[in-house]
Amino acid sequence: MKIIVLNCGSSSIKYQLFDMPSRKVLVKGLVDKVGLKGSSIKHSRNDGKEVKLEGEILDHQTGIEYLLGILTSEKYGCIKSLNEIDAVGHRVVHAGEKFGGSVNITNAVVEALEECIDLAPLHNPPNLEGIYAITKLLPQVPQVGVFDTAFHQTMPDFVYLYGIPYSLYEKYKIRRYGFHGSSHKFVSKRACEFLNLDINKQRIITCHLGNGASIAAIQNGKSFDTSMGMTPIEGLIMGTRSGDLDIGALFHIINKEEIDIATANTLINKHSGILGISGVSSDMRDVEAAAGEGNVRAEIALKMYRYRIRKYIGAYAAAMKGVDVVVFTGGVGENDWVTRAEVLDGLDFMGIKVDKSINKELRGEDALISPPDAKVKVVIIPTNEELVIAQDAYDIVNGNFVN
Amino acid sequence: MSKSIQNKGTLQKIGVIGCGTMGEEITRVVSQSGIDVIFLEINQGKVEEALKSISCHLDKMINKWGLTASEKKLILSRIKGTTSYSDLKDCDIVIETIDSKKKGTSIEIRKEIFQKLEEEVKENTVITSNTSTLTISDLASVLKHPERAVGLHFLAPASKVKIVEVVKGVQTCDEAYEMVNKFARMIGKKVININESPGNISTRLIVTLINEACEILMEGVGSVEAIDETMKLGFGLQFGPLEMADRIGLDKLLKWMDNLYAEFGEKQFKASPIIKRLVRANQVGRRVGKGFYNYEGGKAIGQTVTCTEFN
């Protein structure tokens, strides 16, 4: 069975073609600068053959038309006809309270997602564009929506509500939703498989540390709490996002800098985080290099970044009345051993220990980095959100989907 | 099922004629909305000046947290300047926005531009003017295809004001009108639909308010500050009428009033002697640092006109 996985951003389309159930990636690529000058498609096949095409791609539909063209092309493609495509899985950022799991996309689902645009005005519209385009171009092919928020729908009300008038939740659904759901779900499940543990009896803390970053408390396989809130701003310090911030401070900034709400939004989304503190870059590697050369602000940025993660690990261990497994994933989580070491340093009191020499080795694969006698298992699990989408699409199309 | 798809892909390039304060604002807003824009100026020097000024403005936005450096690059990459009408030929919409502050009538200049433009652009290019007190029908009268002309009135500053007035002239066709409506929505504006009348809604009402404020001042009823405070705090306006006059520029205001008075012949459009007097002294407002108020660094620091002067 062949399944296309699409991740449509505001000006980009990431795609992969999976063979299922073998989980093999046949081709993958990126349509970049959709609707902008200098648009292009970078496409690579699993035999290493690559191509980059440049041309005008005015909207998502055109981009998807082109990528379907390449999939079926003799030189770079891997299928003879579009009839070979059995399903398309879409990443959709925000499903509000509407969906607690992946779903087969019907007109009613599309309408429900259109109602969620308010909650994610930047992300949901391009995700929907991808769905509209496939509906038009491949009308016979079933489509599946996999939502960033769905996994966290199991959070109890006293966790997801904010300390503001309840009527605002009733009127506008203001609450914590959480994001990176596919990733938290995937790595928690994978960690238990890897460690040969029953996920239904574990208290797991998953740290997804990429350019965006969030952390989740997963109890018995269900998300109990997570650091991102109604929007992806809350929680950990990220590349350019502030994470947790006193709202009173933001009001003060708005007054002092004489800026409007939209600008304040840009301030905490794009000028803050590691970039804003260090003044160097939003990329951890650059900031680490700068700190190594004695840049004081870069050093502070790294300390803050790591401290925030550590604080959440403590909080979530308390929230679940203990912790059995800690998982690191995402670009930083998988590759930055110093961050892992510093985040977990001195947590022996709660049973967390790290084998320093194993931690330092980079593998790019599942790995246990705690010593065998440690009470808490600490693991690195490379995330694979695309695979989650392909798997869910495969299961839904075959009627085997279990949330 | 898709509302957004239908609104996408058809508007790709916008032309702007005249890159003064308003032209520059419009150019920036259009590019920030992801649409290519080309502006026309009378010489290369002015083109460079405008590009530099746009870049400066974007830098200010970065410093005030509204933009990132890479977004600035992207915005600038969509903006081109030219001195040749033929470069506007593939524009979907062209917006004429020449400086209307100068004395004398600008209607002939605008008509000339419309004619030159029509010779160069493709047959379905919509031609618009940012004028509010001249009518689009009058400007369109020189076109071979007057049905392609639409009034498109931005209020200053175009990047901040949330509305635009889209004006249907006598001969404006539905397709052209709908295209401009769509464009206005694409750049994030709320469209105010207007059936052609000089001054539309915005200019006609603000001009009347300012003129009456001048009458009050002249009669010695209250000071400049008293008038502005009353309207600001009493009615929740962002600016008082006289401060607003300074922001618009008294020369421009006088121009508008002359046009409206010529059209309607009503007393409320007859410019107050105070306005005329200040314009004669080139005390035309915030732009020159002096109008009803003195300005330092763009901020009002005390009134210049007292009511007793006119008693």
Description of the molecule:
- Chain A has 403 residues and is an alpha/beta fold.
- Chain A is 38% helix and 20% strand.
- Chain A has 2 domains: 2-147, Nucleotidyltransferase, domain 5; 181-385, ATPase, nucleotide binding domain (Nucleotidyltransferase, domain 5).
- Chain A has helices at 60-71, 107-115, 124-137, 157-160, 166-172, 181-195, 247-257, 261-270, 273-278, 284-292, 296-319, 330-335, 337-344, 356-360, 385-397, and strands spanning 2-8, 12-19, 24-32, 40-45, 50-54, 85-92, 103-104, 143-147, 203-209, 213-219, 222-226, 325-329, 367-368, 377-380.
- Chain A has an 8-stranded mixed sheet with strand order 5-4-3-2-1-6-8-7, sandwiched between helices. In chain A, strands 11-10-9-12-14-13 form a 6-stranded mixed sheet, sandwiched between helices.
- In chain A, a hairpin with a 4-residue loop joins strand 2 (12-19) and strand 3 (24-32).
- In chain A, helix 1 (60-71) crosses helix 3, helix 10 crosses helix 11 (296-319) and helix 11 (296-319) packs across helix 13 (337-344).
- The model of chain A has no long low-confidence stretch (mean pLDDT 94).
- Chain B has helices spanning 3-6, 21-32, 44-63, 69-77, 107-120, 136-140, 174-186, 202-218, 224-235, 241-248, 250-264, 273-280, and strands at 13-17, 36-40, 79-82, 93-96, 126-129, 149-154, 163-168, 190-195, 293-296, 299-303.
- In chain B, the strands form 2 sheets. Chain B has an 8-stranded mixed sheet with strand order 3-2-1-4-5-6-7-8, sandwiched between helices. In chain B, strands 9-10 form a two-stranded antiparallel sheet.
- Chain B has 12 helices and 10 strands.
- In chain B, helix 8 (202-218) packs across helix 10 and helix 11 (250-264) crosses helix 12 (273-280).
- Chain B starts with a helix and ends in an 8-residue tail after the last strand.
- In chain B, helix 6 (136-140) links the parallel strand 5 and strand 6 (149-154).
- Chain B has 311 residues and is α/β, with parallel strands linked by helices.
- The chains are: A alpha/beta (403), B alpha/beta (311).
- The A-B interface holds A 35-37, 58-59, 61, 107, 110-111, 125, 128-129, 132, 135, 257, 259, 262-264, 266-267, 270-271 and B 1-2, 4-5, 8-9, 12, 34, 36, 64-68, 74, 77-78.
